[in-house]
Amino acid sequence: MNDKNLHITNLEENSNDFFSKGKIDWNKSESEVWAELERKINEKPAGKSVSMFSIVMKLSVAAVVAILVGLSTLTFLYTKTIESVPGKRLLLNCPMVQVLN
Amino acid sequence: MTQQEFKILFENHFADVRKSVFYRSGDADVATDIAQETFLKIWEKQSSIQTEKVKGLLFKIANDLYISHYRKEKRSFKFFNSFVFENEMQSPEEEMTFNQLKENYSNSLEKMNEKQRTVFLLSRAENLKYAEIAEVLGISVKAVEKRMKNALEHLRNLLKQ
Fold first, then answer.
1. ipTM of the predicted assembly exceeds 0.90
2. DSSP at A59
């Protein structure tokens, strides 16, 4: 062991001895802190967890998706694109409305 | 978690959480306030807490609260205002030597890097093993060893002046 380490060892012993004689002087005891905490938790009850994906939430999402898919399908099915050369008139019959082009 | 279970949690861990903050801040009032706030947060978030990890979580919350509330204030480290010694001095000479040593430690601790100081005090004043300090601070045992070595070097340099 070199001199430096010897010094550290002495310091370790000294500091162990020195700090072991002391103690923390708390201004509040644990029971006082608990009394305060108990009052606070009674004023503020524990938060209730609400799952983002509860059954109702899942059903709502499914319903919205179904409606969107349905509307998209209807739009797709009731759309027809026709092309005509300039000057030519075409008549198209759609299921719900008639479009004269 | 019922209030009774919460009380058991408090009784099992409050002292450790409060002491961990004290050795970091050097202020008993700050430590008490932060430890209390830590448990209040646990109560508010109790539904998402895994009981086997609660100790680590408590130390982490306390650490975060300390950083967010107090670290920025750069308070001076007045450790011996709250860390007291029982007066068992046999002679005035002994008392004078002790007071000199206390002043030297006080000055050294104030100048010491916060991370090294916390490890040093948890080891010396609380008599924790390195593995226990690592758990409290959420760091590796290797890191604790390194900080302790640096703290002792720092003290050696300052105390010999």
1. no
2. H
As a whole number of angstroms, the distance between CA A3 and CA A14 comes to 16
> How close A95 comes to chain B (CA, Å)?
56
Q: What is the pTM of this model?
A: 0.70
- Overall fold of domain B90-160: Arc Repressor Mutant, subunit A (1.10.10)
Q: Output the tens digit of pLDDT for each of chain B's 161 residues.
A: 788 888 888 999 999 999 999 998 888 998 999 999 999 988 887 666 666 678 888 999 998 998 887 766 666 788 888 888 877 667 788 888 888 888 888 888 888 888 999 999 999 988 899 999 998 888 999 999 999 999 998 888 877 66
By the CB < 8 Å criterion, does B77 face chain A?
no
Q: Could you tell me which of B20, B14, B17, B3 has the C-alpha nearest to residue B122? A: B20
Judged by CB atoms closer than 8 Å, whether chains meet at B84 and A23 is answered as yes
Dist. CA A24–CA B31, nearest whole Å:
11
User: Range(s) for CATH 1.10.1740 in chain B?
Assistant: 3-74
CB A62 within 8 A of CB B63: no
Amino acid at B135: E
Strands A98-100 and A22-24: unpaired
Total count of residues recorded for chain A: 101
- The correct answer on CATH 1.10.3470 for the domain covering B3-74 is no
Q: Per the CB < 8 Å rule, is A41 touching B40? A: yes
